[in-house]
Hints:
The complex is a heterodimer of chains A (263) and B (406).
Chain A: E1 4-15, E2 18-30, E3 35-39, H1 46-53, E4 61-66, E5 69-70, H2 76-86, E6 87-90, H3 102-111, H4 120-133, H5 149-161, E7 167-171, H6 179-196, E8 199-203, H7 207-210, E9 215-220, E10 223-229, H8 236-242, H9 255-261
Parallel strand pairs in A: 3-8, 3-9, 6-7, 7-8
Antiparallel strand pairs in A: 1-2, 1-4, 4-5, 9-10
Helix pairs in contact in A: 3-4, 3-5, 4-5, 5-6, 6-8
Chain B: H1 3-16, H2 18-55, E1 60-65, H3 86-93, E2 98-113, E3 116-125, H4 129-132, E4 137-140, H5 145-150, E5 154-157, H6 159-166, E6 176-179, E7 182-190, E8 205-209, H7 210-217, E9 225-230, H8 236-251, E10 261-265, H9 266-309, H10 311-319, H11 324-360, H12 369-395, H13 399-404
Parallel strand pairs in B: 3-8, 5-7
Antiparallel strand pairs in B: 1-9, 1-10, 2-3, 2-6, 2-9, 4-7, 5-8, 6-7
Helix pairs in contact in B: 1-11, 2-9, 2-11, 2-12, 9-11, 9-12, 11-12
Amino acid sequence: MSVIAVRDLTKVYRMGDHEVRALRGVSLSIEPGEFVAVTGPSGSGKSTFMHITGCLDRPSSGVYELDGRDVSKLPKDELAQVRNQKIGFVFQGFNLLSRTSAIDNVELPLLYRSKNTFRTSERHQRALRVLDAVGLGQRYHHMPNQLSGGQQQRVAIARALINEPSLILADEPTGNLDTRTSIEVMGIFQRLNREQGITVVLITHEMDIAEYGTRLIRFRDGRVVADQAVLHRRNAAEELEALPPPEPDQIPPPPADEHAAAH
Amino acid sequence: MSILMTLRIAFKALGRNKMRTALTMLGMIIGVAAVIAVVALGTGAQQMIEDQVKTAGTNLITIRAGSAQGAGGVRGGAGSSSRLTPEDAAMLRQLPELEHVAESIQSRQQLIVANQNWNTSVEGTNVDMPAIRSWPVKYGSFFTDEDVRAAAKVLVLGSNVSDKLFGEGVDPTDTQIRVRNQVFKIVGVMSTKGAGTGAQSMDDQVFTPYTTVMKKLIGQTYISQIYVSALSADEIDTAAAAVTAALRVSHGTSSPEDDDFMVQTLEDIVALRSQTTNTMKSLLAGIAGVSLVVGGIGIMNIMLVSVTERTREIGLRLAIGARSGDVLLQFLIEAVVISIAGGGFGIAIGYLVALFLNNYQGMAAIVPYNAVVTAVGFSAAIGIFFGFYPARKAAGLDPIDALRFE
């Protein structure tokens, strides 16, 4: 069963007098364990596609099945629960709550579960587990402003993982990061994808970042214009090994990087 | 999501911005503290009046002369009627509902003793006065029935008058004193009673037989008041009714409009005085209430700023699964927590102010419990009322727009 299956997806916005047809009939499916990079110039419809697959928006027409369930016509509150249970978001700007510790940020989605809620101790344990999985080291109680950009994005990825979603939607996750940190973050996605089989959909306009995926989908003018396997896939772990070590005044890489590099 | 989780989220959000939370609370704190302090003062003042009136005796009934109807319908003011007479008092003495009856007639006189003098009110009364007012004498004794019958020139001084003329702690009994060029004998001094129901101190007056005032001082054949006491405080209404009925018969009036006398119980007097303090209390509490509303507007203002400032946070919460109801509740709870906590601190501060006024300013201030309960309820209501609009604004945000918000 596909994680994402969309058929004839369209989205029309009304902007004053004229209509904007952001999606003009998109059909595709994404299988479990895929690492899909969605690219395209701005205005191509890739953001609209992400909003709909992320259940943040509903299509004007067409069918969207997430994990086999048609979610294209669900009411708002049910969409919220679908987002909570099935989708983990990673944003360009991290979107961590300020003055809130890493662990509290990671626990946040657990607070919005409507069923199978956890006790405080269980929430903590889960949060610690996913924070360890993204390699934040011991900085559980650091505030976002005490963390580097890469570390903040790790916290955000941990937050996306905590409800064990079917799908991680990463919207330009390296847009605010330097080259080395970008590779580190892509390394985390690759590792999660490879080791835990987590389906990743990566939205980016940078071709070199898109090449960390297994499959490339290119949007233009609201349509899919290319959908192919990535020929020369980049391996973040290997690239990191080849890079010179970070300058000493930088924050030392968390232990998970060494772990990833060992593979 | 449970309400408990929402509470948790709201408290965490408030804790993230402690300074702002505290400043927003300040508006509520000042408002509630002001209301509590003002209400405490008002209640204290009212209590004081009631206590004062009670010192005058709770089963006291006052009968005043009504207005005189002159020729051509010209009416005099209260007390202008000359139709309240010693005969009325004698008639009232026959009523079984009454315990004591005392005639009353006033005159202002200059008292002179040696090189001291003092202008005060001379109250003509009879021997029942100390019993009606439950007012014992300090030195000497009260004048007697014999003195009343004989219109004897005897005086019983109020403690203030005694202090002014003879100095404090001096027993002036049997001293001669001149009133209107007549020599009176001081037979006693009343104990200190304190402020009366009027502006004047109860202790700044002297007592003499009413017959003496009528015959020796002002030459008048009628009296201005009769004080009577009911058998007990519970029977005061029946006693008042009996007095009214008896006087109507003897004065030949049939309807309340024709009455040339007024029958007042202490309750009437308390009600009248309380009305004044109540008006003052409401006025002041109203002004203080305005500051509460201003505090509420402060909360709304800050919450609106907060919603705008936290748009991305709201977007994120929506993205990770918060329903708009969760967001609404979160912001509403934040507002209510601010207002209730502010109200709580306000009550504490208001209480301290009342305590201070009591102990250091000599003012009576009583914090009534219902005012505390009302303050808490009102604070919560203000939080909900002024928090709802910002909360709805937050809940109505579109997650995509909110996430993009810069």
